[in-house]
């Protein structure tokens, strides 16, 4: 395959990656889907990178790659924040559950008062 063909395919992959990130709606769920889809593209780029006779990235490819990396960082930041929020909510639910359980256990234990004392 010619160097120009590799460069064209590489550029197409980067454009598809950018389009996927541009389509991201800002939610964690969609962010996960975008990252999953882009894993295939990353694998393809790594294959191209393993060939010795392929020219380095062009200026356009470098600019696209930078944009893709920036978008991916933003998605990852959003995913981390969503994970933290979910962990905090889970802690609150667990804490409420323990409080309720403690209250129920207190109600269940009989209290005997010896009035004859």
UniProtKB/TrEMBL annotation:
<protein>
    <submittedName>
        <fullName>Uncharacterized protein</fullName>
    </submittedName>
</protein>
